[in-house]
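Technical note accompanying the year-one report. For the benefit of new consortium partners, we illustrate the data format agreed upon in the data management plan: each record pairs a sequence with a structure-token string. No post-processing was applied to the example shown here.
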Amino acid sequence: MQPITHFQSRTVVLPTKDIDTDQIIPARFLTTTTREGLGQALFHDLRFAADGSMIDDFVLNTPEADGCEILVAGKNLGCGSSREHAPWALLDYGFRAVISTEIADIFRNNSLKNGLIPIVVDAATHEFLLRNPGIKLDIDVRTATLTLPDGGIVQFPIDGFARYCLVEGIDQLGYLRQQMDEILKFEETRSWTP
């Protein structure tokens, strides 16, 4: 995982409420244990018709969505099953952050562990973002702030350990590996054996 400290991007807006993980990545695409290629199936049943053709008016299929790395979604994003493939698909597609007023706990935790920034904002900020698709936002993970085009700054909650891992570009295993000297020292000096 690459360190994530700060980035800017335009937004794409999908205002639908209660987007569950099966809508993000349908279960029939969960046959892989790697992330590569999952972005092609992101929102598959919303992006493609039964015959496989693109649904032209779905927001991700429009030219305005090209290059957007921030998805603004309706309330209760990521509800449903606990599949880690959901953040994998969003990341593989090119998203680096998702924003809503409510993000399901398991989805939020899976996102943080994989380098996708889940940002919860207040209702007024959310409403502004929903009404203004395509605006450029500045996200600073170190300060847990979202900067709006007018210079307004919105704080967002983020777990301290998760923030540390994101900024350092490590996952939980990487964090443990950083502590290897202390772990070995403890194992050598402990008075008991497992």
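Partners are asked to follow this layout when depositing records. Residues 7 and 193 are 47 Å apart (CA to CA).
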